[in-house]
């Protein structure tokens, strides 16, 4: 249940292209509902975009995106929920420390964020690396989450590891995992070629091409700051720690309701199969004509799925 956040001095308002005031091509009247804010969680300052009314709903996107990935869903969700779309550590306008990119730490960051905003209990939607963090949060902090929706990821240390010499389709989808885990060399190869590397990721993983302005926004955010590029790889460099954590997490199954969403042209039903390894109450949904980015490729279908799945949470909060 949401409560009013404690009174405290407000840090300066976020500025720059990653803020609500400067992000490109937002839905009509978006700034009337949503504002950017910095939230201090102790030793970390996170950028969150908040707005709406009702029970709290945390939205966490994946690599290499920011809160902006949720922009098409947020106005409708804000009619029923207090929406919190966040840039996790290392992303967008949030702080970019050198470490802390394992999912245990990322989950603690989200708990601290919601505490600072006054939300003890909340629902969550996580995509890609946001799905990794959502699983860690549900397992490590089971009293905090009411419902969890996840999309388009396998979970390292939980999902079966693919073979090194697998089929071409798997290689084309997953080769960046090994590349991103390298130390320094990947940054040297990508720096100055961000539009080539990240543009290829968006182009090859979507069934419906993302708008040019959205891809440009994501890539320009990474290219503008060497620390942003370094941090984008840090999530993958922390995978040894994350996988060891997930091996332990799988020993205690999740009991909360989970919606697992896959794009028919990418992971499909494999998202649900992954979550069934960890949770007892899993609903699998495969979205037609969709690749890796359902919130942007098929926003109407994604919104309908989330609205239906979150309805019991919304209803319970009104009692």
Comma- or semicolon-separated keywords:
globular, Rossmann fold, 319 residues, single chain, eight-stranded mixed beta sheet
Overall radius of gyration: 18 Å
Q: Assembly type of the shown chains?
A: single chain
CATH top level assignment of one domain: Alpha Beta
Instruction: Kindly report the average pLDDT value.
Output: 94
Biggest β-sheet, characterized? 8 strands, mixed
Explain what this protein looks like in three dimensions.
With 319 residues, this protein is an alpha/beta fold. The chain has a domain at 30-162 and 240-317: Rossmann fold, CATH 3.40.50. The chain has helices spanning 30-33, 74-77, 103-116, 129-140, 168-180, 185-190, 194-205, 212-223, 226-237, 239-249, 270-276, 294-297, 299-317, and strands at residues 35-40, 45-52, 56-60, 82-87, 122-127, 145-151, 258-263, 282-287. The protein has an 8-stranded mixed sheet with strand order 1-2-4-3-5-6-7-8, with helices on both faces. Helix 2 (74-77) links the parallel strand 3 and strand 4. Helix 3 packs across helix 4 and helix 7 (194-205) crosses helix 8. Residues 1-26 are annotated as: Disordered. It holds the Pfam family Abhydrolase_1. Residues 55-296 form the AB hydrolase-1 domain. InterPro entries: AB_hydrolase_1, AB_hydrolase_fold, Epox_hydrolase-like. It comes from Streptomyces flavalbus.
């Amino acid at each position: 249940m949401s409560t009013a956040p404690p009174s405290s001095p407000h840090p300066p308002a976020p500025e720059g292209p990653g803020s609500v005031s400067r992000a490109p091509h937002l839905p009509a009247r978006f700034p009337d509902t949503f504002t950017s804010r910095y939230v201090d969680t102790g030793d970390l300052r996170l950028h969150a975009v908040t707005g709406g009314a009702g029970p709290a709903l945390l939205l966490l996107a994946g690599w290499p995106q920011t809160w902006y990935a949720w922009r098409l869903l947020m106005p409708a969700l804000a009619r029923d929920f207090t929406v919190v779309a966040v840039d996790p550590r290392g992303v967008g306008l949030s702080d970019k420390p050198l470490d802390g990119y394992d999912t245990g730490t990322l989950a603690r960051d989200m708990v601290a964020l919601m505490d600072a905003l006054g939300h003890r209990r909340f629902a969550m939607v996580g995509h890609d690396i946001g799905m990794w963090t959502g699983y860690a949060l549900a397992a490590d902090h089971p009293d905090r989450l009411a419902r969890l929706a996840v999309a388009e990821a396998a979970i390292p240390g939980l999902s079966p590891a693919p073979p090194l010499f697998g089929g071409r389709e798997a290689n084309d989808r997953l080769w960046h995992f090994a590349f991103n885990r390298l130390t320094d060399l990947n940054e040297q190869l990508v720096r100055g070629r961000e539009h080539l590397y990240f543009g290829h990721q968006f182009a090859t993983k979507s069934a419906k091409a993302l708008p040019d302005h959205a891809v440009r926004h994501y890539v320009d955010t990474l290219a503008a700051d060497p620390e942003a590029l370094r941090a984008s790889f840090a999530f993958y460099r922390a995978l040894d720690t994350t996988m060891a954590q997930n091996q332990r997490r799988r020993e205690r199954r999740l009991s909360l309701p989970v919606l697992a969403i896959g794009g028919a042209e990418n992971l499909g039903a494999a998202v649900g199969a992954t979550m069934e390894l960890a949770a007892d109450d899993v609903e699998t949904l495969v979205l037609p004509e969709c690749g890796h980015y359902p919130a942007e490729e098929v926003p109407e279908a994604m919104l309908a799925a989330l609205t239906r799945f979150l309805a019991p949470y919304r209803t319970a909060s009104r009692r």
